[in-house]
Amino acid sequence: MTEIYVDADACPVKDEVMRVGGRHQLKMHFVSNAWMRLDEGPLVARVIVPEGPDEADDWIAERAGDGDIVVTADIPLADRCLKNGARVVGPTGKSFTADSIGMALAMRDLKAHLRETGEIAGYNAAFSKADRSQFLQTMEQLVQDIKHGA
C-alpha cells in the first residue's frame, strides 16, 4: 500500500499533501523536529524526531520504499529514497528521478561552493501559486501512476 512521507519542517505544501492523500485514502507521515499543527485523522501521522542533523531524513529514508511517495526539497534525502524505490517530488512539483538526481546533486554542490566563495548570494526563488499548482498536479500524477503500475 502506497504511503506518503513528508519532510515537513519547512514544507510549504502540507495542506496539498493532505488533500491528495485524503482523496486517495493514503497514509501520510509528516516528519519534523518539532510539533506542528496538522489536521487530525486516521490517515495522518505526526512523527517528531529528536533534534539533530538528518534525524528526519534518516527516519524517512529508513521507511520509504517501492511504491511510496516522498515530498522533500532535500536533494541528498531524495537520492536515498530513490535508491529505495520511492517516488520523490519537491514542493515546487519537480519530480526527482534516477536520471535527474545526479545533476541535482552536482548543482547543489556547485551552488554551495559558489555561496561559500561569495560568487552568489544564498537566496532561493520565492514559492509561488504556480509552484503550488504544479505540486498538486505532480502529486496527483504520481498517485495515478502508482495505482496503474506505471
Tell me what you see in this structure.
The protein has 150 residues and is of the alpha/beta class. It has a single domain (3-147), classed as Rossmann fold (3-Layer(aba) Sandwich), CATH 3.40.50. Helices cover 42% and strands 16% of the residues. The protein contains 5 helices and 6 strands. The protein has helices at residues 14-23, 55-63, 75-83, 101-116, 129-147, and strands at residues 3-7, 27-32, 44-48, 69-71, 87-89, 95-96. It has a 6-stranded mixed sheet with strand order 3-2-1-4-5-6, with helices on both faces. α3 (75-83) links the parallel β4 (69-71) and β5. α3 runs antiparallel to α4 (101-116). The two termini are 15 Å apart.
Write the layout of secondary structure elements.
Blueprint: E1 3-7, H1 14-23, E2 27-32, E3 44-48, H2 55-63, E4 69-71, H3 75-83, E5 87-89, E6 95-96, H4 101-116, H5 129-147
Parallel strand pairs: 1-2, 1-4, 2-3, 4-5
Antiparallel strand pairs: 5-6
* Secondary-structure element pattern, one letter each: EHEEHEHEEHH
Strand content: 15-25%
Instruction: Round the mean pLDDT to the nearest integer and report it.
Output: 89
Gross CATH architecture? 3-Layer(aba) Sandwich
User: What's the CATH class, please?
Assistant: Alpha Beta
Q: What is the CA-based Rg, rounded?
A: 15 Å
Q: What share of residues is helical? A: 40-55%
Low-confidence runs of at least 5 consecutive residues: none
CATH topology: Rossmann fold
List keywords for this structure.
alpha/beta, six-stranded mixed sheet, Rossmann fold, about 150 residues
Briefly summarize what is shown.
It is built from five helices and six strands; from the N terminus they run βαββαβαββαα. The protein has helices spanning 14-23, 55-63, 75-83, 101-116, 129-147; strands at residues 3-7, 27-32, 44-48, 69-71, 87-89, 95-96.
